[in-house]
Structure formats: C-alpha cells, structure tokens
Amino acid sequence: MDSKFEVYYFPIHGRGEPIRLLLAFAKANWESKFVSDWPNEKFNTEGLLYKQCPMLIEHTASGKENRLVQSCAITHYIVDLFNLETDDKFKNALLSSYFEGINEINDKISRYVHEGRRLNEDITETIKKVKDDQSIASFIQYNEDILAKNGANGYYLDNKMTYVDIIAFNIVDKYLHFPGLDDLFTKEKTPNIMKVYENVLNNPEIAAYLKSEKRQPYPSFNKK
Ligand SMILES: N[C@@H](CCC(=O)N[C@@H](CS)C(=O)NCC(=O)O)C(=O)O
C-alpha cells in the first residue's frame, strides 16, 4: 500500500483516534492534519460532505487524492485496504456486528456525557446516570460473552487481531482514563475485554504509536 494518508480532525482523541489507531496498527504512512480555524474550514474545506470531521485524505501513488468522511465508512475503507479482517464473508459480517455492538457502549455513555455538559450538570451526577443505566452494563456483559465464546483468548474472532480489537481497545482506554468511569472495565469485572485491551496495548505498532508525538493527550479533566 503506497498511499499516504492524512487524518483531518481536531487535535483531540474523539472520533479521530480510532482512525489513527487503525492506521498505526496497519503500518500505514499517515499523519494528522489538525483543524485550526473550524468556523472557516467547516464551510470551505473540500470533501467535508456533512460539514463535520473526521475526514480521511488519501494521496495515492498515482497522484490521485481521495477524501472520505463518516467514521464508519473510513473504518471500513481502512479495514479493506489493509486487510484488517478475515477472508470469510460471514466472519467479516460478524466482525461488523461486533463493531456496532462495541460502539453502542460508547454511544450510550457519550449521550449522558454530552447531555451533562449541555445542562452544566455536576460530573458526579453524569457518572451516576451512566452507572445506573442497566443497558450499558448489559452491553458490556454481552461483549464479555462474545469473547468467552471465542475462547477468552483476547481476540474477538479466532486467533487474529482484527480492527474490532483495536476499536474495543480505544473505547476501554478512553474510559480507563475517565475519572469516575475508570472502573467500568477491570480485570475482575470484565476479564475478557481486558485481555483484548492488553493484547492491543502490547502490539508493537500500537505501543510505538502510543509513545509517539502523534498521540494526542487525554482530555484535561482526565487522568495522566
Ligand atoms: N457521523 C459522523 C459524526 C461526525 C461528528 O459529529 N463530528 C464532530 C466532531 S466529533 C464535528 O465535526 N463537530 C463540529 C461541527 O459539527 O461543527 C462520523 O461518525 O464521522
């Protein structure tokens, strides 16, 4: 794969981070291109179909430029380019289903966090709402069950690290660094998910990326 990639996004983790992690894992040639003047860029940047980030910009070896928006579309494009799934169509569909199931955990929690910020709610109130929401606990448990069925070996499917493991890593990592929600995922409560987390953390490409200057800091209200 001779293309060069730019991840056009704000200088935060957010929706840009899973894309950066996937490109790092895939050993792609990539860099971040940060938004610097959003009110202007939002309406004057080519390819921003919905006036939102992230956008993946690909410069191909033949000199073509491809611009793609919408996180899930970007994820699937990277997965396809770098073969981050399997050779079996049904298994790939299953991975896609796991991908949505994992994202659902993050979506459910994020709704409370965004709503809490909008209402200027005390963060302890938001955390309580997240912890009281049985559907979040259930979705975490469903992930534990999927992983148990695969042998509790630290992978979502078979014995291979796929994009789904990377996506799960990103979400677990986010909440491990979110004070008050840092006990959502633990070795005691969610041993199978934590095995995936450790596997990805120890992947050489991911480890190198996390230590690099490319990695953006955690949000200021977060630890570390
Ligand atoms: N469905 C889109 C959502 C993108 C989105 O909400 N982007 C936010 C940042 S995370 C954004 O660009 N906000 C600025 C704005 O809408 O003006 C995706 O998954 O990429």
UniProtKB/TrEMBL annotation:
Q: What Pfam families does this protein map onto?
A: GST_C_3, GST_N
- Per the database record, which ranges form the GST C-terminal domain? 88-221
What does the protein in this record do?
Answer: Conjugation of reduced glutathione to a wide number of exogenous and endogenous hydrophobic electrophiles.
Give the EC number. 2.5.1.18
* Descriptive protein name: glutathione transferase
User: What SUPFAM superfamilies does its record include?
Assistant: GST C-terminal domain-like, Thioredoxin-like
Q: Note whether Transcription occurs among the keywords.
A: no
Instruction: Name the enzyme's class.
Output: transferase
Domain called GST N-terminal: residue spans: 3-86
**Organism source for this protein?**
Anaeromyces robustus
Name the catalysed reactions.
Answer: RX + glutathione = an S-substituted glutathione + a halide anion + H(+)
Cross-referenced InterPro entries: Glutathione-S-Trfase_C-like (IPR010987), Glutathione-S-Trfase_C_sf (IPR036282), Glutathione_S-Trfase (IPR040079), Glutathione_S-Trfase_N (IPR004045), GST_C (IPR004046), GST_superfamily (IPR050213), Thioredoxin-like_sf (IPR036249)
State if Transferase is listed as a keyword: yes
Q: Which family does it belong to?
A: Belongs to the GST superfamily. Mu family.
GO MF: glutathione transferase activity
BP GO annotations? glutathione metabolic process
The entry's keywords:
Transferase
